[in-house]
């Protein structure tokens, strides 16, 4: 019915509404999964209709939510990724709709195939543009950082320059939302992925390290943030002694004291201990840094960790 009349907006709207009526029916779920391309194409053909965009996006969110709950990874193809990008561009000023659309993109990008397809169609510059415009919007910042993380960790990263352009924007998100643990965690994860891919310039190491330390200080209770923040710092230190010195000489307090504090807060979390050990392992490759760590009695902390996790 929808495919026979792509150009008729009313047909597409009625089709989407009818499909939406099956969302609560669990037996209909496998069939709804096959409708994602039809829904996104209807959205692309009728981008001027905000009502249709909202209804289509809402339905896709419902389908994807159910898919994730059931452990089904939806590998949306390049044509669907292209449709979603088209929608982002057409409604780049509509904050409320973009908030919903960015949530959808984050869910879609959980699939590595979908993440690659989003990258292929060139979505990163558009995401960064949305972030710059709506830096104050919690949901947009959280979702876009989630998408950036997925795109940065996926296998094919041929266009380093495009990814590198995400560093200052992601840092701006973290700076803006340091006290919001959920967003700070998402931004720390994105910075970790970007650091792993070698996207930071020499001039980024020191300010990024200071920013990550601020995130750890302001959100000490968030296990995942502490873990990913430390992994991001380890990636920076691996690349630059400047980052290691920035941790030791941070103007807001000794980084080594912060490491001790984080371990004692999360002493029963093996993932945090592992991230902290990795950070220290990277730091001791620099003689000056190692001497400082010795003077701070970091060997005592390492012995504690070894005692706490003897079989890890």
Automatic annotation (TrEMBL):
Q: Which InterPro entries match?
A: ARM-like (IPR011989), ARM-type_fold (IPR016024)
What is the gene called?
Answer: Stkld1_1
The UniProt keyword set, sorted, is: ATP-binding, Kinase, Nucleotide-binding, Serine/threonine-protein kinase, Transferase
Q: Does the keyword Transferase apply?
A: yes
Q: Highest taxon of the source? A: Eukaryota
What is the protein name stated in its UniProt record? Answer: non-specific serine/threonine protein kinase
Asked if the keyword Lipid biosynthesis belongs to this entry, the reply reads: no
Which reaction does this enzyme catalyse, per its entry? Answer: L-seryl-[protein] + ATP = O-phospho-L-seryl-[protein] + ADP + H(+); L-threonyl-[protein] + ATP = O-phospho-L-threonyl-[protein] + ADP + H(+)
Q: Name one GO molecular function term.
A: protein serine/threonine kinase activity
Write down the EC number: 2.7.11.1
